[in-house]
Amino acid sequence: MPFPQHTGVTHTTASHQLEIFAHRGLSLDSPENTLASFKAVEAYEDAWVEIDVHTTADGIAVVSHDPTLDRVAGVPGKIAAMSFAQLQAIDLPDGHKVPTLLQTLQEFPKLSFNIDMKDYASARTVPQVLGQIDNPKRIRITSFSERTRRRAYKELCALGLEKMVPLGASEILMGLIYISSWFGPRVWIKLAPLVHRYLPVADALQIPESYEILGRTWNILTPSLLKTAHVNGYKVHVWTVDEPSCMRRLFDMGVNGIVSNRIDILESVRREYTAVESN
């Protein structure tokens, strides 16, 4: 299905504001993807919170990375097969609960959230939640699955939110941009209008430095990819980085943002760069 609202990205250099992302919140004193881990991020100015969403059997979008609670609570069973009431009966460590997406966004109205839709059902439930909050512009939604991303875009359009809520790139879109970068940044300028007749546009590429495919490790973050992304108006965010030396190297390369389990360390590194820029 064509996407007439978008015929391509804006071909300008992406803003080089350095963004920091708390991976599943800050989990030094509380479990990941809990209200307490999100509360800890409020201490860091302009920070994003990177979260993951699944949908319960009765259609409630909840914040959880895994499709089950085996790892975080030692309880078997898929979230998609549980009602929200059943999910709430399960304790995470120290008595924390799996929060709903709506509860999360309403409780932290000043935080920005990068939402990874982990299942297809969330392509419907996440936009519905965004239609219930006051400021959806502080949200980005994304999915590795292009099918999920396409469905979410259609739901955003139905709610009139498609111009407010940006989308991150799927694996398919990322792969197309990555391959085109082998031939120079202007190749994607020519391809983008055709591709975005069928795939919703994205504002950011959120990637690891490398990725293993068919037993081979590929360097995803390359100078040519960065140049292609920036010429075509995409931001580049790299996950998941916890070592200060790696953070500095990535900022030196020109990435726009970093996702980290240690946003406290990441913020200190970012301050080094903002201090240099201000002098």
Report on the biggest sheet. 8 strands, mixed
Give the overall shape, derived from the CA principal axes: globular
Give the ordered list of helices and strands: EHEEEHEHHEHEHHHEEEHEHEH
**CATH architecture type:** Alpha-Beta Barrel
Instruction: Please count the helical segments.
Output: 11
In CATH's first tier, which class applies? Alpha Beta
Helix proportion of residues, in percent?
Answer: 25-40%
User: Which structural class is indicated by helix and strand composition?
Assistant: alpha/beta
Assembly status: single chain
Q: Please give the alpha-carbon distance between the first and last residues.
A: 50 Å
What Rg, in angstroms, do the CA atoms define?
19 Å
Overall structural domain count:
1
What CATH calls the topology is TIM Barrel
Question: What is the residue-averaged pLDDT?
Answer: 93
Strand content: 15-25%
Q: CATH superfamily assignment?
A: Phosphatidylinositol (PI) phosphodiesterase
Number of strands: 12
Unreliable stretches: 4-11
